[in-house]
Each structure stands twice: as structure tokens, then as C-alpha cells.
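Structural prep section.
Before we set up the soaks we want a predicted structure of the protein with thiamine diphosphate in place, mainly to decide which crystallisation condition to try first. Input record follows.
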Amino acid sequence: MGADRIAEGGEVAAAGAAATLAPGELARMYRYMLLQRLAEERVVALYYQGAIVGACFTGWGHEAIAVGAASALGPEDAAATLHRDLGARLVLGMPLRYYFANFLGRVGSPTRGREGNLHIGGLGPRILLHTDYIGANVPVAAGAALGFVVRGERRVAMALFGEGTLATGEFHEGANLAAVLRLPLVLVCWNNQFAYSTPVAREVAGPLAERMAAYGMHACAVDGNDVLAVYAAARAAVDRAREGGGPSFIECRTMRVRGHSEADDASYVPRALIEEGRRRDPVARFEQYLLEAGVLTAGQVEAAREAALAEVDEAQAWAEASPPPDPAELERGVYCEGAPWP
Ligand SMILES: Cc1ncc(C[n+]2csc(CCOP(=O)(O)OP(=O)(O)O)c2C)c(N)n1
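Run finished without errors. Recording the C-alpha cells verbatim:
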């Protein structure tokens, strides 16, 4: 099966997507991209103030991928997200309050303040538990897709992950199983050029989409900084999966414009690459598109930004009002409480 390629930049697909989306849906995608950006800017500021108890990761520059991909899912579909996918979780219904409570280590988070990072579970049926072990969220999502098929549900599972995932054994097992069983699975890869400090050419030989087409699944590459291109590719893949057409792989090309975490200055990345990535900022690009296409006025853009900032303020204040965990609770939830069997 040859790679079902979308032209570099995904302009044609993006234009098609824009035509099918109502202005309200475009504005909704913009709102989630703004929320991810502003919430992460706030958490980075809190990190440098010493208020964050763990490591600080962001999906800065990945907003188009997280929001574009998740927006293509139906109301019953599920996704296995990772550390650059805050926007996807928000689209799928995670309250922003949980994001702040988890980073601030407060009991209001689903981890009850015992995880100062992004490993938040218990977020309802649409968001699969964050699997920190790189590669492992692909077989988890493939298993969810298999469960949907076995139960006769017309649901689709999605996994989002970095290109570093393609160098793991778990990725191969999950992708292969999905291709062989033609599972309703959509693999969304954010190729941000580096897996921590390893450049993509040292992780995977050859174009990613060609490799994935050889697994026996549909594969394409899109501009990951263009939310409409990501949405168009994801929407086609979700529709195909739901109709029994099997799994798809979407390479979303982008650039990691910060370190792996805030503890990393990314000194191993050529500055020109980072600067070029920042020039292609997905939030600014979508904002410009919405203005030029007459979807939003400058006043509406400003209002959207103020509303998103107010949501961020509210979520942070809610988390700060939540107490830190009681040390007596340390072992709660670690081991099985009560007998799970009769
Ligand atoms: C199996 C495994 N090895 C190492 C790590 C530590 N680790 C977390 S993220 C990461 C880099 C992953 O690269 P990529 O998926 O390309 O995403 P990036 O974080 O570079 O954007 C590493 C090595 C891990 N979580 N799991």
C-alpha cells in the first residue's frame, strides 16, 4: 500500500477543512489553542517562581496538533495523550483546574496532589490514562480500539505521541496489531525533530509516512503548525476508521521550540531551527487566518484572548485554594484498597 500523501503544508486539505467547518467550530478550535498556550505560559512562570513541585513540560508550538487532531474525534471516541497534548485533553473534556492542581501538587487534582506533572488519570471514558513509558500508549490505544470492536461499538481510538515513539518495540507491536486486525485506530505523531536530545535522523531511517504505509495502514504527512491541515487529515482518518477502513498514521511536522522540559536549555539544538519554528507559531498563524478569512474580527480575537486568560486565572485560583496532600494519605491509591474479588 503506497503512502496516501497530502501535499507538504497540507494546503489543499486545510482549505477543504475550512470549508466544512462552521465559523463557531473554527472559533472553538482557536479557543482551545489559546487555552493551551496561555495555561502553559502560566505554568512556566510558576515553575520559575518555584511553585511547581515536579518537572515542567509544555506543548508550546504543538497546539495545532493537539487541538486539530482531538477536534476530529466524535463524542464517544477516546484518546491516549502525552506530555505535549494539553489542548487535546481540554477538547476531550478535562477541566483546566485539574492541570493546575496537578502541577501545583494539590488534592483537587485526580492524583490528589501526589504527582506534580502530567500523569493525570481518572478523566472520564474519553481520555486514556497518561502512560509515561514512551511507546506504551500505542498498544494501550490499540487495545481500546480492539475493545470497541469486540463490544460492537462504532468508536475510534487515537494515540498522540512524539517521533521518538517510533523507535520503541511497543510502538511496533501496537501498530502491527492495529494493521493486522484493521482496528479503528488513528496514530498522530508529532514529529518535532528531537526526542529529548536525539535528532530524528538518529531515531528513524527514512520518511516516517513511508515506513508506516509499509505496516499496511494509511499514512500521510501534514504541516503540524497548521491546525486545519491536521484537522483535515485526522478527520479523514477518523471517518475511515469508523467505517471499518482500519488504522491510519499521520505525521504532523513541527519543531520543538523549547527544551524537552524547562530544566533543559536545548543547547544541542541549532538556534536557527528554534527561531524558524517560532516564526511558524501555530496560534499566531491560525489567528491571522481567522482574521483574513473574516471568521473573527480583531475585537473578537481580543475578547477570545481575554476570556481564555480569565479561564486560566480561575483554574489557577481554584487549584491554589486546594490544600496540599496530607502525608497520612501517602499510600492511598497505591495499592488495591479492599478486595477486588469475592
Ligand atoms: C521507555 C522510556 N524511555 C525514556 C523515557 C524518558 N523520556 C520521556 S520523554 C522522552 C523523549 C521522547 O521523545 P519524543 O517522543 O520524540 O518526544 P519529545 O519529548 O522529544 O517531544 C524520554 C527519553 C520514558 N518516558 N520512557
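Observations: The chain has one domain: 11-317.
Flagged for discussion at group meeting.
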